[in-house]
Design brief:
The complex is a heterodimer of chains A (about 280) and B (about 270). By secondary structure, chain A is of the alpha/beta class. Chain A has helices spanning about 40-50, 70-80, 95-100, 110-115, 120-130, 150-160, 180-195, 205-210, 235-240, 255-270, 275-280; strands spanning about 1-10, 15-25, 30-35, 55-60, 65, 80-85, 165-170, 200, 215-220, 225-230. Chain A is about 40% helix and about 20% strand. The chains are: A alpha/beta (about 280), B mainly alpha (about 270).
Chain lengths: ~280, ~270
């Protein structure tokens, strides 16, 4: 359970990221936070694991205070909260497995980890995490050699290796093409279903939000302006959250369209070069 | 569309900004300082030709290297290479540790960070020959003095270059490591070091190149190796022997530079 009690975040520049936010997130919920850039959705997510410090108010994760936590406490807290980023944030020069093992560092004795060793049980967890996102065959490949979608799956595996009770995802699909974006969202949805991990995702595409969320939180100027199930979040609600009328940029291109494209591409690939040349209209 | 003038209604073009006075003042100051410095040390090119004749017999000896002497320089040359290898290894290892302390990215504690920066400034303030003289006084003539001098020289260079590379590292993977609950040292080991490794190894090879050259100079002031041989032969006025050493030195340094550069190219 995550509880915000009158939480305000003010950045050193004076910008207000969160303006006395109060809300509860129950265990196992799949929450999507929507809002324009600068509305505070990133601040909301990053305050939960203390990457952004709370200026005032109380923020509890499983009854542990995030506000005012000492470095060691914060590390212990973070080990149970996984985070996924827009730019994946993998270390490109090390292997996929090593990247996933970063998620086990919190449980590995310092000296052992400094020499690059992990205990067999931790390696096992890393492999299981890679299997869960279906990318275990890439374990010994350098992370930089993977595509964007594959990298984001490795990032999800890194989070799973942590054995988290909460997963935070800050714009996880903003750098991905529509079919890959849906793939990553489905991974998150499945993990939420199967493992019951509380999942909080920032998105700015409202079709993705409606499709995957159990609950949508709309933010504007650091305040929560909508909080409810996707069924209640119609276009009028989004226009209120965004403070303007909706445009084509607010939705990811239709998934049906994307799947159709993929099928067509597959069909085209199956044709001979000659046949496809004949089929091309003059 | 019929005319060549731009169809867009354009605002007035901005006037050309006035040349900056500061640039001219700065340029004048540089010239003034140079002239003042030249006058101060009575800079004069005339000795180049008036005194040239005096050293002519020395130059003649230099132009006739004593090739038979080269055989006896192999030992000292190997000593010089050994000094450079050991100093590079130790200096680069310590330098990596210091560079982690001397970057805000890896050292959050401001006191520790400032202390590391200050220590490195002090280390860098003494040139390689300075360290050579210092350790010659401390441990006496020989390869140990040369090794210790080069180690200090290397720590200064490696830590400066590497800590600046760390400062510019992509913060994303660091944030990811933080978000897993990893400690600062673990983050350095798994996120920072892999990212800077190619640069760091390239600096290590560069420092090795420098060490070959520097160990010659340090040898002259008592650091062992081929530098000591040069110093001894100079003292005996055996300029043709010195000349043979210098020729071989150029070949060795050139070969090592080529090798090191080809390795460095492969790193990045």
């Amino acid at each position: 359970m995550i509880s915000f009690r009158d939480v305000t975040v003010t950045y050193p520049t004076g910008t207000v990221g969160l303006d006395s936010v109060t809300l509860d997130i129950e265990p196992g919920e799949f929450v999507v936070v929507v809002g324009l850039s600068g509305a505070g959705k990133s601040t909301l997510v990053r305050s939960i694991n203390g990457l952004v410090p709370v200026t005032s108010g109380e923020l509890l994760v499983d009854d542990v205070h995030v506000d005012g936590a000492k470095p060691a406490q914060l590390r212990r807290l973070r080990s149970r909260i996984g985070m996924i980023f827009q730019s994946f944030n993998l270390v490109g020069r090390i292997s996929v497995l090593q990247n996933v093992l970063v998620g086990r560092l919190h449980a590995t004795p310092l000296l052992l980890s400094l020499f690059g060793f992990f205990r067999p049980a931790d390696k096992e967890k890393a492999f299981e995490a890679l299997e869960r996102v279906g990318i275990v065959e890439k374990a010994y490949v350098r992370a930089s050699q993977l595509s964007g979608g594959q990298q984001q799956r490795v990032a999800i595996a890194r989070v799973l290796a942590q054995d988290p009770t909460v997963i935070l995802a800050d714009e996880p699909v903003a750098s991905l093409d529509p079919p890959t974006a849906h793939m990553v969202m489905r991974d998150l949805e499945r993990i939420n279903d199967e493992l019951g991990i509380t999942t909080i995702v920032n998105l700015h595409f409202l079709d993705l939000a409606r499709r995957y969320a159990d609950r949508i939180i709309g933010m504007r100027e650091g305040r929560v302006v909508f909080d409810g199930p996707p069924a209640e979040a119609d276009d009028a609600v989004f226009e209120q959250i965004y403070g303007r009328s909706l445009t084509a940029d607010d939705v990811l291109s239709e998934e049906e369209q994307a799947e159709e494209d993929a099928l067509q591409a597959q069909a085209a690939a199956e044709l001979d070069a000659e046949e496809s040349r004949k089929a091309t209209p003059a | 569309m019929t005319t060549a003038t731009p169809s867009r209604t354009s605002t007035a073009r901005p006037p050309r900004p006035r040349p900056r006075l500061g640039t001219y003042i700065g340029l004048a100051a540089v010239v003034a300082i140079t002239v003042w410095a030249g006058i101060g040390i009575e800079f004069d090119l005339r000795p180049l030709w008036t005194d040239l004749g005096r050293g002519w017999f020395i130059i003649q000896e230099f132009l006739a290297p004593n090739w038979s002497y080269i055989g006896r320089t192999i030992g000292p040359f190997i000593e010089t290479l050994s000094i450079a290898v050991i100093a590079t290894l130790v200096g680069c290892a310590v330098g990596l540790g210091m560079s982690l302390l001397a970057s805000r990215v890896t050292t959050a504690n401001p006191v520790l960070y400032r202390a590391a920066k200050l220590f490195l400034s002090v280390v860098r303030s003494l040139p390689d020959v300075g360290y050579g003289l210092l350790f010659f006084a401390l441990v006496g003539a020989g390869s140990l003095a040369g090794i210790l001098a080069l180690i200090m020289f290397n720590i200064g260079i490696i830590a400066k270059l590497t800590s600046e590379t760390i400062d510019a590292v992509d913060r994303g993977p660091l944030e990811a490591a933080d978000s897993t609950g990893a400690s600062a040292l673990q983050r350095a080991r798994f996120a920072v070091v892999p990212m800077i490794l190619p640069n760091y190894l390239s600096y290590c090879l560069y420092v090795f190149e420098l060490n070959i050259r520097a160990s010659v100079v340090i040898g002259i002031v008592g650091g062992g190796g081929i530098g000591s041989s040069i110093s001894v032969e100079f003292a005996r006025f055996n300029y043709s022997n010195v000349s043979a050493i210098v020729v071989l030195l150029i070949v060795v340094v050139f070969a090592i530079d080529l090798l090191s550069q080809s390795l460095r190219r492969r790193l990045t």
